[in-house]
């Protein structure tokens, strides 16, 4: 039986270790907001567009193509078919589906930070736990001159906020903001089955229409300061 000197055996073992392939680290699955993950992602690392797919698979139907910089709500991520997929939707609305997490980065909010954790502003607003209160210009009917309405705002940072407005008749209207932009309003029994919600910006002012109602909400309400 041949015997190798100890030094030769050790050298051979080291060579084997050096030549052995190193297993690739498993891709990290981003956490959902309720688990401390980012509230929103931004599409990055693509030159033209990122495919939004119906299911978490490269073979699944493409439901939309997302341009670089598109901001998406983080609805949860998981590993499937050798990729990490994230369930997402444009935070302004639109189709929901899955994208490859390799082409996502945590979105930076307008105030310059990445928002993590759930947005609890609607819950706190419902409890009357407001960070600020005051008056904003409002009108309740077409052609009516603007007057003042009281408001309370619950903020969740970076322009994520819920604004509750008390109308002159004592009823309330709630307007929801994300990333500094108004997304929609609540409905009441007095509203028609479907009512229009429109908004546009002038400088740092959000001009909002909810049916015939009009509101002017400055950025200072949602961002603070």
What's the gist of this structure?
The protein has 225 residues and is mainly beta. It has helices at 6-19, 121-126, 219-223, and strands spanning 40-43, 50-53, 62-66, 71-80, 83-90, 96-100, 104-106, 132-139, 147-155, 161-166, 172-178, 181-185, 197-202, 205-210, 213-218. It has 2 domains: 26-106, SH3 Domains (SH3 type barrels, Roll); 121-223, no CATH class.
Architecture overview:
The chain is mainly beta and 225 residues long. It has 2 domains: 26-106, SH3 type barrels; 121-223, no CATH class. 11% of the residues lie in helices and 41% in strands. It contains 3 helices and 15 strands. An 8-stranded antiparallel β-sheet has the order 12-11-10-9-8-15-14-13. The chain has a 5-stranded antiparallel β-sheet with strand order 6-5-4-1-7, with no helix packed on it. Strands 2-3 form a two-stranded antiparallel sheet. Strand 8 and strand 9 (147-155) form a beta hairpin. The protein is elongated and about 60 Å long. It starts with 5 loop residues before the first helix and ends with a helix.
